[in-house]
Amino acid sequence: MDRRRSVIPKEDDVVELNDSQMASIKDAFRNADINHNGHIPKAKLADLMRTLGHDLKQHELRDLMEHVDTDGSGTIEWDEFLPLMAAMVKEKEEQAFYKQLFKMLDKKNKGYISCSALRDILHGMAEQVDLTEDEIDHMIQETDEDQNGEVSFEEFYKLMTTE
To answer: Is the pTM of this model over 0.90?
Structure first.
């Protein structure tokens, strides 16, 4: 099952970029701006996203363009490109954080944690985030999509980052 997270930035996301990240984003824009006119054509955006590890289907690219192309020009300008790339940087950092957390929970390095271990974790968090036993049961059932009693990193990441 292909479970990709959306690359469309949320309106309320605020991402602070360091100088290195900003320079990389500027370089990516310059490289994608094949006509050196300050615009990235839709076709080049697809190539750029693929290079960045997001192999978008046509409808996903169309949705992305509709969201990011705020002036409706059919191309992406710098002020439209920067928030998209900042959201991708945030997602990458977020994923690295959760990958580390998952590794700490996967003590035997099996590539999964048991649903019972996840239940223990959620019980530990229940008071802080106001979770009932029914909500915990529902979360585990939703998370363990293949119902094998194990939670993969992808399932764990989806649980931790989905509102």
So the answer is: no
